[in-house]
Design brief:
This protein has 2 domains: 2-52 and 410-444; 56-388, Neuraminidase. 20% of the residues lie in helices and 43% in strands. It has helices at residues 2-52, 409-444, and strands at residues 55-58, 69-77, 80-87, 93-99, 104-106, 117-125, 128-135, 141-147, 152-154, 165-173, 176-183, 189-195, 200-202, 213-221, 224-231, 237-243, 248-250, 261-269, 272-279, 285-291, 296-298, 309-317, 320-327, 333-339, 344-346, 357-365, 368-375, 381-388. Helix 1 (2-52) runs antiparallel to helix 2.
Length: 446
């Protein structure tokens, strides 16, 4: 029995030493892992914010229209994006959809126009959406419709233009709708009309441009309508005209661009007109120009896009001009650039859409840019995307090392992992201690 007790004591002391070393190692490993997980939680908790700061995200589902869409036009009513387009699923008639916060919903009836609708333009009078289009049911003359909350109603007479209309552009002076278009009834020149409450009236003379005007973009500076267009009378260069109350006058020199100006888009920064276009004088890249009161000047470098720029759309975020376009330098995908006061900078990634894009349309919700387009990667259906910038995580800044984040997502996962490891350490200690006790009891009974 004495020999047995001596053996038991030796083994007991040996086990205590092994157990002590095991516990030390478990403690060190557990502590290291705990610290690593805490650090990981801090990094991952901020990672979604860091990624979101440079992301374009799809609004709802990509390719949400029922089928192929053309002549896509985007406008926002407050923070709610609307799109109008020619809808293959409805016999190429006009359809308008809006995003309700979770999905895209049809506004009124899909395919509400009487016939095929080309050159669709969407704009708002307060909360009321209007669309203007070339109406196949009226010999492709201009028709304007508005949504009354239940149905789409014709504004004035359907097909009110003198002849067939192309490149239609719709805008408002208060509650008065204006349309500009290339007028087949007046030698393909520019015509602008407005609705006086009962009928459509010419603004100045019909067909006032020197020659063919296509494409045309309309915008108002206060109550003064302006049009920008590719001027067939000036080697297809850019011309801008304004209505002075009695007649249309050139703004600066007619045909002021370096080369041909296609996909021309007009917008205002305060009372200063800007135009963006595909610049034939600079390898068909994007160029933006502004009128300084006496002449047209380049904004930054002419031809600033990476490659050819098609379907150019111009809009302002405050006083900062943005352009969206189909970027042939990036497989025809959508690119957006902004002018920082010195140079044009890419917003997010260049070519961020899934595939090629047609009929690119740019608009803003506050400082958030949205783009709509015909999406070749999704059945040539309509897709809308927005540039999402999240706020910086609280507690992180210059000279700060604290992070305040809720116990959700990555931070919660890291904390759960830490708890599992700590429980694992306790379990390991319990199992090791229990094994030692059982071993000692067994030997004591020998």
């Amino acid at each position: 029995m004495l020999t047995s007790k001596v053996i038991f004591l030796e083994r007991s002391f040996a086990m205590k030493r092994v157990h002590s070393k095991l516990m030390q190692r478990l403690f060190l490993v557990g502590t290291s892992l705990a610290l690593a997980l805490v650090n990981l939680s801090l990094v991952l908790a901020t990672a979604p914010n860091a990624m979101a700061a440079t992301n374009w995200e799809t609004v709802g589902t990509a390719g949400f229209s029922a089928n192929t869409s053309n002549f896509v036009s985007l406008a926002l009513n407050g923070s709610t994006p609307y799109v109008a387009y020619r809808d293959l699923a409805s016999g190429w008639k006009a359809t308008v959809m809006k995003f309700d916060g979770s999905s895209w919903q049809t506004v009124g009836t899909a395919g509400f126009s009487a016939g095929v609708a080309d050159y669709i333009s969407l704009a708002f009078n307060g909360d009321i959406p209007y669309v203007a289009y070339s109406d196949a049911n009226s010999s492709y003359e201009t028709t304007v419709m508005r949504f009354d909350g239940a149905d789409w109603q014709t504004v004035g007479t359907a097909g009110f233009s003198a002849g067939q209309a192309e490149s239609i552009s719709l805008a408002f002076d208060g509650s008065t709708p204006y349309v500009a278009y290339m007028d087949y009834g007046n030698s393909f020149k520019a015509t602008v009309m407005k609705f006086d409450g009962s009928s459509w009236q010419n603004v100045g003379s019909a067909g006032f441009s020197a020659d063919q005007a296509n494409p045309i973009s309309l915008a108002l500076n206060g109550s003064t309508p302006y049009v920008a267009y590719q001027d067939g009378g000036n080697s297809d260069k850019a011309t801008v005209m304004q209505f002075n109350g009695s007649s249309w006058q050139n703004v600066g020199t007619a045909g002021f661009s370096a080369g041909t100006a296609d996909y021309i888009s007009l917008a205002f920064n305060g009372s200063t007109p800007y135009v963006a276009y595909r610049d034939g004088g600079n390898s068909d890249k994007a160029t933006v120009m502004q009128f300084n009161g006496s002449s047209w000047q380049n904004v930054g470098s002419a031809g600033f896009s990476a490659g050819q720029a098609d379907s150019v759309s111009l809009a302002f975020n405050g006083s900062t001009p943005y352009v969206a376009y189909s970027d042939q330098g990036n497989s025809g995908k959508v690119a957006v650039m902004q002018f920082d006061g010195a140079d044009w900078q890419t917003v997010g990634s260049a070519g961020f859409s899934d595939g090629g894009a047609y009929y690119v349309s740019l608009a803003f919700d506050g400082s958030t840019p949205y783009v709509a387009y015909e999406d070749t990667a999704n059945g040539y259906k309509t897709t809308v995307m927005r540039y999402y910038t999240s706020p910086s995580p609280s507690g992180i800044g210059s000279g700060s090392a604290e992070v305040s984040a809720p116990d959700t997502g990555y931070a919660a996962l890291a904390k759960s992992s830490l708890l599992i490891w700590l429980l694992g350490i306790i379990s390991a200690a319990t199992i090791s201690t229990g094994s030692f006790i059982l071993y000692r009891v067994k030997k004591a009974n020998c």
